[in-house]
Amino acid sequence: MKKTIPINRRQFLAGATAGGASLVLGQGRVWAATGGQENMTQGNNSGFWPDDARLVISISMQFEAGAQPERGASGPFPPLDPKYPDLPMQSWYDYGVKEGIPRMLDLWERTGVKVTSHMVGQAVDRHPQLAREIVERGHEAAGHGQTWEPQFSMTPDEERAAYRASIASIERATGTRPTGFNAFWLRGTPNTLGILRELGFVYHIDNVSRDEPFTVPVDGKPFVVVPYTLRNNDIVRYDSPALSVDGYLADLKAEFDLLYQEAAGRRRMMSISTHDRISGTPARVWALEQFIRYAQGHAGVRFMRKDEIARFALTAPNVPTF
Fold first, then answer.
1. Do residues 140 and 62 make contact, with C-beta atoms less than 8 angstroms apart?
2. Is residue 206 part of a domain?
3. Is 93 helix (H, G, I), strand (E, B) or coil?
């Protein structure tokens, strides 16, 4: 049975903002999953990242469309009594798989960037060919739960069953097993990390406390956190209140500029979050491409998948602990 949700995800993220399979050889090269593409301009010998990259940028592409509830899903339309099917809202989500992800996949191809796609299992079950294409084009398939139901109120058995189902859905469609995880609303339970480790996960992203990867102890061993973002999250920046694409682009550049400056003396990472039905529109893809080209014009900038970052963090020196 579905649980009562007091606020929708957009409200949660807005409130938070207002308040505030690769191989790693030691510190050697981290190769992209297809063909060894490195996605990096010339380095500057900082020593904080593989190949002496100065700043790492990691992009999430959330694959959620198809898992939303048929009634009561959040979106740009006014709320509708849940006793009626919300057909326009469903079409808004459909845009994510019909236009949004295909357009973003072409963007990543043009710019040579590899991303991490957090996939809801039910969305994968309904659009397996799209999930397969994401992986075939060199991107990471990561876990994002099995349904739209949040994890924070689940029992351990419910969590474990949901994550196993999600793993099975992703494996069935893509032939790969996810090693990274993102909880609904970023809200897991005190049991989440232990269950993830038990199921073979290496990292999660449900933490916004640092601008670099770090580890937390889980069952006596380090478990990697690759921090997520609210300030560079399309749900927040295009919705509460909405920014123009020029405004969002300016914010991305400002964030990049300061992190790039700081990266001369410490390990720095920039995270960007995109969602299938939100960032996949023409104007927003244009803004993302302008930013990527801008970042690639700086020496030592590397775009990395989150599984690459996590495996590097497990072996690199001076990675902070929680």
1. no
2. yes
3. helix
pTM: 0.84
Cα gap 152→9, rounded to integer Å: 13
Please give the residue range of the domain that contains residue 265.
Answer: 37-71+81-315
CATH of residue 151: 3.20.20.370
Going from the C-alpha of 100 to that of each of 94, 123, 319, the distances in angstroms are 9, 14, 35
Token readout for 93 is 């989500």
* Class of residue 196 by CB neighbours under 10 A (exposed 0-12, middle 13-18, buried 19+): buried
Q: Which residues of 58-90 are buried (b: 16+ CB within 10 A; e: fewer)?
A: bbbbbbbbbbbbeebbbbeeeeeeeeeebeebb
Supply the angle between the helices 245-262 and 282-296 in degrees, to the nearest 10: 20
DSSP states along 245-291? HHHHHHHHHHHHHHHHHHTTTS--EEEEEEETTTTTSHHHHHHHHHH
- Enumerate residues 6+ apart whose C-beta is below 8 A from 37: 31, 112, 114, 138
What gap in Å lies between CA 284 and CA 232, rounded to an integer?
A: 13
- Asked, for residue 27, whether it belongs to a domain, the answer is no
Number of domains in the chain: 1
Evaluate whether 109 touches 137 at the Cβ level (below 8 Å): yes
Confidence of residue 22 (pLDDT cuts 50, 70, 90): very low
Q: Is residue 6 part of a domain?
A: no
Residue 272 placed within a domain: yes
Top-confidence residue, 186 or 113: 113
Q: Quick one: average pLDDT of 129-150? A: 95
CA 191 to chain centre: 21
pLDDT exceeds 70 at position 65: yes
Distance (Å) of CA 123 to CA 65, 86, 172, 234, 257? 6, 18, 13, 20, 36
